[in-house]
Design brief:
about 170 residues, Four Helix Bundle (Hemerythrin (Met), subunit A), two-stranded antiparallel ribbon, DinB/YfiT-like, MST-like, Putative damage-inducible protein DinB
């Protein structure tokens, strides 16, 4: 969220977007100034959780919720569909792997923001089929879920970064 009091979000959708943008930026900052080996470091063995894995996972989450569910294109193949861990498995400590992960994530964030630019508060109560046999969810609930997903993983990223070089906070 913006620290500038004059830049506060106005409206429900704007508020969700502000929080979502804050947590996206937090995740990106946790990865700043690290090389591919550090980004791929699995800091809490035996978990395969890593910063680059979090970036890959969030690309997958952005694509699934925004491109598949919210844009109602459930037939779109999932990113990393062959990875049952959601993007965390088989992370390579290479620059190419890091570049690919960040490019995919940024592409999905841009596509999500494009979709968000096309809606307003009036549609937040509309529902979407989530494609798992669950009851449909409102756009509002999905956006809150996205904020929760980023907030949870920003906490993971904070711990991972602290294990790598001691950096804490934003």
């Amino acid at each position: 969220m913006s620290s500038d009091q004059d830049q506060r979000a106005v409206g429900e959708l704007a508020n969700y977007r502000d929080y979502l943008g804050h947590y996206r930026l937090t995740l990106e900052r946790k990865c700043e100034d690290l090389g591919p080996e550090e980004l791929a470091k699995q800091s809490v063995p035996p978990s395969d959780l890593s910063l680059i894995g979090l970036i890959r996972h969030m690309a997958r989450v952005e694509q699934s919720w925004f491109q598949r569910v919210l844009k109602e294109n459930l037939d779109l193949p999932r990113l990393d569909a062959d990875d049952p861990t959601g993007g965390f498995h088989k992370v390579e400590p290479t620059q190419a792997s890091a570049d690919e992960a960040f490019a995919s994530w940024r592409e999905q964030v841009a596509a999500a923001d494009e979709w968000l630019d096309s809606i307003d508060d009036s549609v937040l109560g509309e529902t979407r089929d989530v494609g798992r046999g669950d009851a449909p969810s409102s756009i509002r609930d999905i956006l809150v879920h996205m904020i929760e997903e980023y907030a949870r993983h920003a906490g993971h990223a904070d711990l991972l970064r602290e294990c790598i070089d001691g950096r804490t906070g934003e």
